[in-house]
Amino acid sequence: MHLIYGGTFDPVHNGHLRVAIELRERLGVDCIHLMPCHIPPHRGDPGGTSQDRLDLLNLSVTDEPGLRVDGRELTRGGPSYTADTLRQLRQELGTDRPVAVVLGTDAFSGFDRWEEWERIPELAHIILVRRPQAELSPGSVPESLLAERRVESVRELKARPGGGIYEIEPPMLEISATGVRERLEQGRSIRFLVPDAVVKEIQRRGLYAGEPGQ
Ligand code: ATP
């Protein structure tokens, strides 16, 4: 099964990396593909360009063969529509190979507002990561989609190319990219929140630092 874990990764942190390993193990796949999405320029943070996000991600997975980086959404530019990405992947992998995208319940609760959302379950499975603070609204489109497509086992998931939704609740570390950026803006330490190699590279490039004098 080809497993994709998308996000802004602005920057990547140990919460992302740890949950990626948990998912890889629990879903019994050789590797999980971390896929950074494009961010529109008006949402950009000081210093964190797409190339920086991609370079830091690549650094974070060094020596961890179970984690790989797929930069296709950055290379493509423009908005990162999951349906486009999955169609592109299908051209490479063919129609029979199981493909799955990881989504948190926070993201999935607004799923029916995504571009071409109805195409997505036709192209891949969804691995729904439960976040206790983000339950699906009763009677909402995502909730009924889950009820229609729920798959109870990983074996069932791997038996077909897509169309299922599998719920999973892996342990998560209390780390957010927002918290990492805030610490950097305030000149505080981010050690043990992100891999050491990433800490060093952020410092070397002077990323996410507050304006001098602020
Ligand atoms: P921000 O604070 O900038 O919103 P973030 O830390 O939530 O960023 P994203 O890049 O937006 O990170 O998230 C990518 C994916 O990782 C999302 O599915 C998100 O739910 C998940 N994620 C974020 N932080 C954690 C964490 N600590 N543990 C597990 N998953 C996480």
TrEMBL record:
Pfam families: CTP_transf_like
Superkingdom of origin: Bacteria
Lineage: Bacteria, Pseudomonadati, Pseudomonadota, Gammaproteobacteria, Pseudomonadales
Protein name (record): Probable nicotinate-nucleotide adenylyltransferase
Database matches in Gene3D superfamilies: HUPs
Function: Catalyzes the reversible adenylation of nicotinate mononucleotide (NaMN) to nicotinic acid adenine dinucleotide (NaAD).
EC category: transferase
InterPro entries: Cyt_trans-like, NadD/NMNAT, Rossmann-like_a/b/a_fold
Gene source species: Marinobacter zhanjiangensis
Catalytic activity, reaction form: nicotinate beta-D-ribonucleotide + ATP + H(+) = deamido-NAD(+) + diphosphate
Molecular functions per Gene Ontology: nucleotidyltransferase activity
Family statement: Belongs to the NadD family.
